[in-house]
Amino acid sequence: MAGAMVPEMTAQEFTIHQYAVVRRTASLGRGVIVYPFSQVGEAVLLGERVVIGSNCYIGDASMIGAGTRIQHGCFLPKRSRIGERVFIGPLTVFTDDKRPYAGNRNYNAQPPTVEDDVSIGAGCVILPGITIGKHAMIGAGAVVVRDVPAGATYYGNPAKDNGGKR
Ligand SMILES: CC(C)(COP(=O)(O)OP(=O)(O)OC[C@H]1O[C@@H](n2cnc3c(N)ncnc32)[C@H](O)[C@@H]1OP(=O)(O)O)[C@@H](O)C(=O)NCCC(=O)NCCS
């Protein structure tokens, strides 16, 4: 499995822990850190200073903007689009298959879009194809079932606009 494991590397450019798996086709900006037991897929783009916490999965061809921090244990499906300076709290899961079943390799994947400066609390579940608008805040434990407008604060299950401020 060529390219599956990259030895710990602390170059001027980026740091990959020796127990992280970063595919060689991934592109990492200056100052990126990937913590142990995380997996960064094929053709992923990580902008400058992106931090991937431990035990995260970043699906193939995902794009993550500069300054974004993804905390421990998050799952991002392939082709996720995450903006700049986004905070994703620990154990947050993005989904991309509305009606999953085992062995279906031809599903119509609906990856997420998260715009710049969004914050997502711990332990959220984001349903397929959702867009979260700029500067929105998602409360801890939310299940996000529809698009979130820019600047809104959503929480609960199903997550709703609670009129709060960031
Ligand atoms: C969503 C959030 C920003 C709201 O903060 P806030 O506007 O100060 O809200 P308050 O604490 O005043 O709570 C307002 C009401 O919403 C409820 N509430 C707050 N957050 C909630 C959440 N995540 N889920 C469900 N209800 C929530 C409160 O119980 C309260 O209800 P009440 O009026 O019936 O008593 C905040 O609660 C939150 O979830 N932050 C994310 C924390 C996190 O996960 N950080 C990750 C880094 S570790």
What does this molecule look like?
The chain has one domain (7-97, 109-165): Hexapeptide repeat proteins (UDP N-Acetylglucosamine Acyltransferase, domain 1), CATH 2.160.10.10. The protein has no helices and 23 strands. It has 166 residues and is mainly beta. The structure holds coenzyme A. Residues 89, 121-122, 137, 139-141, 153, 155-156, 164 line the site of coenzyme A.
Key structural traits:
globular; 30% strand; single chain; binds coenzyme A; 166 residues; mainly beta; UDP N-Acetylglucosamine Acyltransferase, domain 1
Q: What is the share of helical residues?
A: under 10%
Low-confidence stretches: 1-7
Structural class by secondary-structure content: mainly beta
Main pleated-sheet profile: 10 strands, mixed
Number of helices: 0
Gyration radius (Cα, Å) is 16 Å
CATH domain class = Mainly Beta
CATH topology: the name is UDP N-Acetylglucosamine Acyltransferase, domain 1
The side-by-side strand order for the widest beta sheet comes to 1-2-5-8-11-14-17-20-22-23
- Overall residue-averaged pLDDT value: 93
Q: Write out the CATH superfamily name.
A: Hexapeptide repeat proteins
Shape: globular
Question: How is this fold's topology laid out?
Answer:
Blueprint: E1 9-10, E2 14-16, E3 21-22, E4 27-28, E5 32-34, E6 39-40, E7 45-46, E8 51-52, E9 57-58, E10 63-64, E11 69-70, E12 75-76, E13 81-82, E14 87-88, E15 93-94, E16 113-114, E17 119-120, E18 125-126, E19 131-132, E20 137-138, E21 143-144, E22 153-155, E23 160-161
Parallel strand pairs: 2-5, 3-6, 4-7, 5-8, 6-9, 7-10, 8-11, 9-12, 10-13, 11-14, 13-16, 14-17, 15-18, 16-19, 17-20, 18-21, 20-22
Antiparallel strand pairs: 1-2, 22-23
